Structure formats: structure tokens, C-alpha cells
Amino acid sequence: MSTDTQQLTGQSILAGINTPGNGAEVRGFNPATNQGLDPAYSLIDASQLELATAAAEDAFASFRSLDPETHARFLESIAGNIEAVGTELVQRAMAETGLPEARLVGERGRTCNQLRIFAQVVRQGDHHGVRIDPALPERAPMPRVDIRQRKIPVGPVAVFGASNFPLAFSTAGGDTASALAAGCPVVFKAHNAHPGTSEIVGRAITAAISDANLNPGIFSLVYGPGASIGQALVSDPRIKAVGFTGSRGGGTALMATAAARPEPIPVYAEMSSINPVIFFAGALSDDAAGHAKAYLGSVVGSSGQLCTAPGLVFVPTGEEGDTFAAALRTEAATTAGQTMLTQGIYNSWVQGVQDLGSQPGVELLAQGNKGETENAPAPSIFSTGVAQLLGNPVLHEEIFGAASLVIRYTDAADLATALSKLEGQLTATLQLNDSDHEAVAAVLPILERKAGRILVNGWPTGVEVGHAMVHGGPFPATSDTRTTSVGTLAIERFLRPVAYQNIPDSLLPAPLQQSNPWKLTRRIDGTLKNAGEQA
Amino acid sequence: MSTDTQQLTGQSILAGINTPGNGAEVRGFNPATNQGLDPAYSLIDASQLELATAAAEDAFASFRSLDPETHARFLESIAGNIEAVGTELVQRAMAETGLPEARLVGERGRTCNQLRIFAQVVRQGDHHGVRIDPALPERAPMPRVDIRQRKIPVGPVAVFGASNFPLAFSTAGGDTASALAAGCPVVFKAHNAHPGTSEIVGRAITAAISDANLNPGIFSLVYGPGASIGQALVSDPRIKAVGFTGSRGGGTALMATAAARPEPIPVYAEMSSINPVIFFAGALSDDAAGHAKAYLGSVVGSSGQLCTAPGLVFVPTGEEGDTFAAALRTEAATTAGQTMLTQGIYNSWVQGVQDLGSQPGVELLAQGNKGETENAPAPSIFSTGVAQLLGNPVLHEEIFGAASLVIRYTDAADLATALSKLEGQLTATLQLNDSDHEAVAAVLPILERKAGRILVNGWPTGVEVGHAMVHGGPFPATSDTRTTSVGTLAIERFLRPVAYQNIPDSLLPAPLQQSNPWKLTRRIDGTLKNAGEQA
């Protein structure tokens, strides 16, 4: 894909065709300067959306029948096309989001890595989940016929781009990559905060489809009025699952719409988390100042606009905790705020910090400086005790941006009580040294029930894309605690099992045929066997 | 467990304690004689239900920490206790349901087999879903820390007994067995149509808990006023998932309640399916009369009260189809109806058959004779064409009981159109011979999207409990198409993944420890490896 095709059109891409919208216009907006960006993007209406969903349904039959190699190369080709765009993509994303270049270069790498790891998953084929219970014609009192199971893709998927990851959770991000890997066409609703970034990536996907001679209905990129077109998309009977990353209000609205359909469908919404971090006494006695600096770095990075930012930090009362608090104040004095993604998000942050600071018993513990750009507020850290946390639901709410609340706890019982009252979380973090193991062991069972990921001596911001990652957790962290939106397990969200009983081999799909043409590991009579063991 | 403990008490079992209910009374009822059965069962109220859910929550921590061998033996002990009851269980179930002895003996075998196969699953441990991405300290630009994933049980589960399988889908049925295998305590709401059967099995579970010195909160059996106590149970914040088998109305009501909770939870409801059976011309030309007889047998067995009963049968127009229809009439003339489960179900059947028979273009094709017992209606088979099916939603509704609708189709296009308009189904069945393969291949992709199980040259009634079975399917067959309620995959319904990042080995749970003490097959860096390969 040559870069001279990157002149932005301001149009949706409906099954490969650039299409001006019938509705109003929006523009990208540079939050660092408060200036609008060209071009204007015209928004589609419900009848135009139908073109995308109908094309996705039409494309499903052929897309889900691809051989693994063609399918995997298609995903890799998207990654290659995104890289081929070069600096233009990063520059546009910087202008639209205010995020720094290094962060966006890293995010682009993660996005392409994500597509390539799903290509490996497609080639390997474990996600087909093949199970074979061979016939037992001699069994008494009743013979058993041959039964085989595989997982098939659910159908077209609606994906909503997140504001805070314009690449890795957006157009070709984790939801799109895992849905395409499962064999599901995607209708992608762009986030209006980074329309140009979305278009560039959307073209990379479209070019990959065209180069592989696949059905263009596999992917559409739509710009639309946020709430109404989103509701129309989730209501469309051809859509069979939804991926979303965003606010609790937005996610629960989509959940309600999906549940009210004549045919309810699953919604995978990653929403709200305050990501508790627990300091144990031993860890603080090792290096209170170092921990304070690391904490502040995790709060301020990406202007705090990360799903896994540490919003709630438990620090023991007593001398070590006081040293930590003092170091935090010192560190904050030389820390500047960074530009936030949009004016709307900035305004919400200001309101949230004001609300938190005015709660009874909550004090401002440390504050940084405003940044030099627009929409770059002073990072703010508050402090209170366990009693206040237990008694006040406001203290459990996520403030999206560089703000955090320190909870001083008196002893193990105090800590356990507080943790057991938290809502569901994406992450829970433990800062400890060897002397803390007994105390840690006491809270681990509580945290397993609260969080999707538990980590030790690190910071939750920074989500590795691998096979073991869980970016999920109980509500309201996500709408569906049975899965993850990052890592290869995410493909399971878009699959469902089908059993084939007594079907002649020539009529079976490839993954189930006796000759095992795709060389899959399959579960035979309950035991996993690789291709060589299935003689 | 000695049989002299089997004097029925008419009481709920709340965490091991027989407890009379504060509410009204119900009785088992013999549908073959229209006579009430002793004893009366007193119904609990909401405050008594709280005892069960609180005990389940209290028991969860220890139950989910059991070693595999203790856990597996507990499941096997339930099976042994059920068998030890002897004929008393089958006799009581016969009296309460009108089902014949052979069917209930078989169902008891299936129920115990189901518990034992889940014991094998627990011993093997693949359901822990362990994934390990080892640390890569030298990776550039960023090192990777060790990340490990396992699945843990979701928490206490509410299970609702089905009327039509008083053993296999009831007190110790598939939902209970898979939830207990996952490590989830169960609060079981008995179906009021077979309270005595439920109590006998409930005691078998309670005795197994006691014998193994487990926390009695692992299981409660409650009798309650159907709708209200069911809603209270699903609303209880300690309940984290729901298993249900029953009507579409009942299932969707629970789905709505679960979705409206402050913390929404998954509902696995198996509800409504008409299980299309498709005859191709070749199959009929082989043996139209034999097929007619087998069809009638599948319709009439268990008085048609099976989730997978063939409610919709596609037969080609033309001579072979006419021969089939004539044979059906002949066969029906010597076929008698069997007692239905309850008077209420009988009345619903009568109403459903009356509604179906009065639809435009629908004719009564064949009718059997009434049975000699009470509530044993004449099996009824209707006939119409594809145009009527497409235009009339009434023809898509399940009639629970011995009734079925034959659709005469003219050609492949006619058939494909009809199949593509069906709602989601538990099963789809193809009757074919070698000459039909081309026609079958054309409809298979349609059926994969409609059904959880596709079978050839058999009848869908009869669900094998194995590793490859899917008893599931798109809505309204079930509320959640991603899973099954029969077979070992059902355990996945009650699990969720948790990631452990950079956790010291001594703090890791056993399935994740480096020494792999449970000898699990684990996914290392994306590739499944058995215990011996994980050096």
C-alpha cells in the first residue's frame, strides 16, 4: 500500500466503498491546541448502516470457510499495511489525541503484534475446539454413534472503537483482530475523537481484503452519531456479538439494547475499573520513595487515561506509609500534567476531581502542575481511610484521567474488609517483599474474586498481548467475566460449539474429518491428542 | 446410605438441615391417576432462602480449594448414594411423573454416569485452562514478566429443576453436576411436580457432603412458590450464575431479572426448540414406512415431553412423501398416547394442538389413540406447506408433548428458504442416503447457524452424555449459544479466567506452580504441553 493513497476522504468505508454520509459532520480535534482538523467527516444514517450489516451477513459464509493459511495471511497483511503507512499514521494520531509519539509508536507495534499473534492462532487451530467421541457400536445397553464437536464463528460482529487507544483498541485493535480471527465479519463504529486515524487504518484493512480477493463485506468502517447509530448497530438482527471499550454508561446502554433484542446477543464491554494497588509494610520499608515515584508515573502516563490506571492505592498507616506520602508530595511538585484526549474527557475529569475532593474525610494529598498545552490538568492524589471508603460509593467511582485515591489501612482485617467491598476490577496489584507473604496469602483469595488480573511488584498500566493475559474481570470492569478483551483467549468470545452426530466423513467440515487435514490437536474421547497421536 | 432413611419429610434441605417452610404447601401429584401424593411439602419464603445463599457463599472458599481427588470422589459418592437408594427412587419418580420404569431406570443411569464423567474431568484438570507465558527478561524493547492464567469457579450457582427429566435435569442433573464439578456451591430450586424425587436425590447429595466432611453450604434443596422464589434466588447478590431448563417464558423472565441486577450474571436457560428433521428423497425411497414408524416413535416417546422432540419434519412433495404420509396414518392408528407429566402440561398441549390445527392451510395428517391413563392424549401430526410456515409464526412455536408438524417442500430452493427462516434450535436432523449428499451439503451451512447439534439418520431424542455433545444452540433454543447444558463442555459455563502476573511461585495456586503438582496439560507460550513436556 503506497502512502500517496493516504489523502483522507472524510467518508465511511461500506464494504470497501468510500461513502459520504447523509448526516451531520464531525471533525478530528487537536486537544493540545483546541483546534479542529481537516477533513470534515460526514456521518451515516441508519439506512446506510444497513448496507454495512447486509454486506457483512453476505460475506460471512465465504469468510468462515477460508483455509487457515489464507485466513492467517490476511491478518498478517493488515499488519503489514498498517506498518507501510509509516509516520503519517502516528502523526495523525498524535494530532487527534494529544498522546506522545513514543506511546503511539509503541501502540502501533502492539496493534500489529496483536494481528500477527492471532494469525498464529488461526494457523495452529486450537480455537476450533475439536472434540471427537468415536462410535462404540458394541456398547451395552445402547451403542454409541460417532459425535464430533467444533466451534464456529457466531456471525457478523459490531466493534466500537475506544477513545484512549486510537490503534490498539480501535479500528484494527483487539476486538477487530479477534473477531476477524474467529471468522466473523466486522462492522466497526469509529470513535469520533480520532476519525482520521480510523480512516487510515480502515484503508489498511480494506486493502488487505482486496489484495486477498476476499469478500469486501468482511469489514466496514462507519462514522455515525455516537449513541443513535450505536444502538441501531447493536439492534441489527444480522449482528451476533458486540465488542466495546468505553464508559460504564455507554457499555450498560449497549448491554440493555442487546438483551432487549428479539434474539439477545452477547456484549463484551470493557468499562470501569479503579484497579486497587496494595502496599504491604515490607515493600514500603524497602523503598518508600521509589514506590512513590513509580506510582506517580503510573498515574500520570497517558494522562491517566488507561483502563488499568491505579485509581485506588492502599497504604498502611504508620511511619512507612507516612514516608511514602511525603515522597509522593515531593515527587508531584516536579510532575506536569499531559494533554487529555478531548475537551469532554477533560471536563469530566475536572468534575470528578472536584466531587472526590469535596467528600467528607477526603484530603488532597499531593498535586502536580498543569501542563503547558491545553487540556493538561494537574495530576491530583487524594487520601482517606477505610471507613470513608466503606461508607461512600463516590469513592468507588472511576475518574478517567490522572487522579488517584490513597486509602490508609490500619491492619490486615481493615484491609480485608475494604477489599471485599470493592466492585469488580480489571486488575489488582500487590507491592510486597519476602516478609509480606503471609499477609499477601490472606488477601489473594479475595482478589481472585474481584479482578481479572493479579500482579506483584509492577504497575497494572501496560497490558501484555499474549496467551495468558486476562484483560477482563467481574462487572463493572466488564459486562462478561468469562473472557478477556486482550490476548489470544479473546477469540473465544466470537465462537460457539456445534456437534455433528453420525455425519458421513465426506460431509464433515475439514477440522472434523477423520484424516485431520489441518493437523489439529483434537480431544479424542476426552483426551487431547496432537495430530500424530490420532492414528 | 441405607434406605431406611428414605422416609420423606416434606421439608427443604438448607445447607444440610431439614427445614420446614414458612409458606403454603404443595404435593406431588400422580398424573396417571389424578391423585395427590404424601407428604405435603411446605414452601420456604425469601428469608429462608437467604439461609441457603449465605451458606453457599460461606462454603465457596473451601469448596473451590479442594484437591482434585477429594473433589472427584465427592461427585462419585453422590452417584453411589443415588444408586444405593434402589427402586424406591424410581418408584417415586414414576408416581410423580407418569414416566415408565424403563425410561426412569435409564435416566438414573445417565444421571450417575454424568456425575462420574465430571469426576473424570475434575481429576484430569483440563478445565483449569492453564496458560503460561514465561518471563522473557532479555526481550527488546521491553522485557516480559511471567504471566499465568487459570480458570476459577464463578461462585454460588442457582439451578432450577426441569419437569421432564426428574433425575437427569433435576436435583443432581447436568446443571448441578457441572456446577459442582467447577467448584461452585449450588442452591437448587426443586420443580414442584416431583418434590419427593427431589428430596430423595437431595439427601443423596447431602449425605455425600457429610461423608466427605465438606461444608454443608455446598448444596441446598429448596421448595418454594415457583416464580417468586425463583426471582428472589436469581436476584440474590451471592448467586453468580443460573442454570435453567424449562419454558421460553420462564427462561426469558430469569434472563431479564439477571440482566437487571446491579451486577448482571449469566443465565444458561435451555428453553424452546422444534428440532427440524429433513427427509431427502433418497432416504424416503429406501424405506418410507420404516421412517414413518421411527418418526412416530420419536414423537410419542416420553409422551413427546423431550426438549429434542421432532416438532417440525420436512418431507418432499411427490410420491415418496405421499407414501411416508400414508404409512404414518397407518402406524398412528395403532399408537396410544402416554401420560403427560402434569395436568397443566396436558392442558397446554391440548390448547397448543387446537391452535395449530386451526391455522389456515394446516391439516391433521395422522392421529393416534388416547391412552388408558389420565392425561394421555392422542398423539397428533399435522401437515402443511412451506408458504404457510413462512407466513405464520404460530407454526414455529413449540408444542410440548406428542404433536408434530410435517412440512411438504417442493424442491431444494423451497427447503433452503424455509430452513433459513427458522429460529435457533437444539438439533437439526437429516435423513438421507448416498444419493442425497449433494442436497445435504447445500443445507448444512444453513443448519450450522441454526442448531447446536446436527445429526444424520437418527432421531434427536436421546442425548449422549460425552465430551463432544452439544445440547445448546441459538436463541430461543438457549439463552447463551456459546455453550451446552449436556456433556463435559458444560463445566465451562461456571468458570472465568484469572491472570497471575509475576507472582512468586510459593504464592501461586497449585495448577500454576512451576512444579505442576497436579500434572496438568498446560499451554506454554501458546502450545499445549502435557506434564512430561513441561520440564
From TrEMBL, chains A, B:
One Pfam family it belongs to: Aldedh
Protein EC: 1.2.1.4
Stretches assigned to the Aldehyde dehydrogenase domain: 25-472
Leading EC class: oxidoreductase
Molecular function, one GO term: aldehyde dehydrogenase (NADP+) activity
InterPro entries (alphabetical): Ald_DH/histidinol_DH, Ald_DH_C, Ald_DH_N, Aldehyde_DH_dom, Aldehyde_DH_Superfamily, ALDH_KGSADH
Keywords: Oxidoreductase
Signal sequence region: none
PANTHER family: ALDEHYDE DEHYDROGENASE-RELATED, SUCCINATE-SEMIALDEHYDE DEHYDROGENASE, MITOCHONDRIAL
Name of the molecule in the record: NADP-dependent aldehyde dehydrogenase
